[in-house]
Amino acid sequence: MNIKHIFWSLLTPAFFSLTTRAQTQDSVAEFKPHGTLWGLTFGDYAFKGNADTVNNGLGRGSNQYSKIPVDAKFFQFRRVYLGYVYDISPRLTAEVLLAAEDDYYPGSVGNQSSYGDVLANNKFAPYLKLANVRWKNIFKGTDLVLGEMTTPAFPMLSEVVWGYRSVERTVADMRGTPSFDQGIALQGHFGKKANFGYNLMVGNGAGAKAENDMFPWYYGDVWAKFFNQHLIVDLYQDYTKIDWTNAVDTNTNPYHHDRNMTKLFVAYTTPKFTVGVEAFRNTLMGDVTAYAIVNNVNKTYYRTTSITAFSVYARGRIYKDVLGFFARYDNYDPGHKVNDITDIPKIVSYNQAVNNATYDPTTKEQLVTFGVDYTPFPNLHLMPNFYMNTYQSTLASKYYSLNPNVSGVLGTDVVYRVTLYYIFGKKDPVRY
Length: 432
Description:
Blueprint: H1 3-23, E1 34-50, H2 54-57, E2 73-89, E3 92-100, E4 127-139, E5 142-150, H3 158-162, H4 171-174, E6 180-190, E7 196-203, E8 217-226, E9 231-245, E10 255-269, E11 273-294, E12 297-319, E13 323-333, H5 339-342, E14 347-352, E15 363-377, E16 380-393, E17 411-424
Antiparallel strand pairs: 1-2, 1-17, 2-3, 3-4, 4-5, 5-6, 6-7, 7-8, 8-9, 9-10, 10-11, 11-12, 11-14, 12-13, 13-15, 15-16, 16-17
């Protein structure tokens, strides 16, 4: 039985119960439909203190400061949200969210291109990020969600426990795992105090964009809370095919290209102090195309890469709810199977799949960020902070000729920031 059959077998009892439940009216006759408008904004004043030396100082990678030149000074919005949640009935809720993110232009001055939500006239513009309906208690303790929603990858637990999305995304989000998607999900909890739960989803894998391939994403997440809900353990798995084709000719192998991620998140949290660890392994089958000459015949091979990452962080309160701190270290290594490419003498060159540029197997990275959190008013944060990301080749120098974009030089992006973050209409995840 494959994962699709397992998912739909879980959904079957829910749909059988719909007929009878739809026949009954909500028990709370006095209920009146109502809605809540909410939003948040975070951005920075930033100074680029150091830049990776690759590509004339514009750096490598795909993170938010990797291609901004040294000494750049700028104000930047990194996220603006405007959302509305409408309770249609006690058991039916609709949600919509507009988002505008990353209004910066990386690259050399006069030769920039936007990575964010910027129109052709350079104005900041929102897009539809969430639009879903939630059928609560479709069966005991479980909601059915339809539409565009946050995925099981992290938002329900790990991002909330980290609490500082305004400073940096979680390690899985940074490395290309979808944070929101269009699809169908079951989200449930059980136990007397709802200490155990799960989140299962089938989606497009395209985020807010229209589906552009024939392969769905399968997401699964289970979690548990122990010791009066102070200790949190969360296990996540996803799978999708990316390409699945027959051989092009007699000299080319069939191209089977997929990905699957296993992620573990463990945290201990109290109102005054939180420490957490998040780690994942992502396997990309057939993600690197290698070219070889065998008996004077050109041959093509597809090689699998394996990526690991872990993130360790702490946050806490220094003085009441007014002053806090946060610190985090990430280690990211996408080159675990790079020797499967470089140690075969017949391979003369290789390149990575274009649609997985996030997982460049030749470059490992380390992120350090820390700062203080000044909260003069509830839901308003001013956060001076330090951001440093380093890059280093996973290859020995004798293999550089296989890929002209690879260098052994250790590069570092350093940014000094003052981050502004405020939220209205809902609770602040940093404080609750």
